[in-house]
Design brief:
- By secondary structure, the chain is mainly α.
- It has helices at about 5-20, 50-60, 65-70, 75-95, 100-115, 120-135.
- The longest helix is centred in the middle third of the chain and has 22 residues, at about 75-95.
- The N and C termini lie far apart (about 85 Å).
- About 20% of the residues are buried.
Length: about 140
C-alpha cells in the first residue's frame, strides 16, 4: 500500500469513527412551542364599496416588495389581495369594464413578484396600481 493510500484510509477511518458518538437527550429541557401568531382576517365583503377594497389592496401592495425579501408573509398577503381583487373586479367590471385591464395588470405583477420571488415586479405593480386607482377614483 502506498503512503498516499494509507493516508487516505487513515483519514476515512478518522472521519467515520469520529462521527460515532453518544447522543444524550436531556428531557428536562423544554422547547418552546411555535412562536408564530395566527391572525384571522375578516372575510372580504363582496358588497363593500370599491374604494374601500382598492384602498386595502393599495395598503397591502405598498410594502409587498419588502415582504418578499424579508419575511415569509408575502403568500398570505397575496391571498388577501386576490380575495379583495375578486370583490373589486366584479364591481369595476359592472361599472367600468374598460378599466379592469389596468387593475389586472397591477395585480398580476404582484402575483409574479410573490410566486417568482421578484420584489421588483411587486414594486412595479404597486406603482401601476396607485396610478390606476388615482385615475379611477379621481384622486389627484
Amino acid at each position: 500500500m502506498t503512503r498516499a493510500g494509507a493516508g487516505a484510509l487513515a483519514l476515512a477511518a478518522v472521519l467515520t469513527l469520529g462521527a460515532c458518538g453518544t447522543t444524550y437527550v436531556d428531557s428536562s429541557v423544554s422547547v418552546p412551542a411555535d412562536n408564530t401568531t395566527t391572525t384571522t382576517l375578516v372575510p372580504v365583503d363582496p358588497e363593500a364599496p370599491v374604494g374601500d377594497l382598492l384602498a386595502e389592496i393599495e395598503t397591502l401592495m405598498f410594502d409587498l416588495d419588502e415582504r418578499i425579501i424579508d419575511e415569509n408573509r408575502h403568500v398570505a398577503t397575496l391571498e388577501r389581495i386576490d380575495d379583495l381583487w375578486w370583490a373589486a373586479e366584479r364591481q369595476i367590471r359592472n361599472d367600468d369594464p374598460d378599466d379592469v385591464y389596468n387593475f389586472a395588470q397591477a395585480i398580476e405583477l404582484a402575483r409574479t413578484g410573490v410566486t417568482r420571488l421578484r420584489p421588483a415586479d411587486a414594486s412595479k405593480g404597486y406603482k401601476i396600481l396607485t396610478d390606476v386607482i388615482d385615475a379611477y377614483l379621481g384622486r389627484s
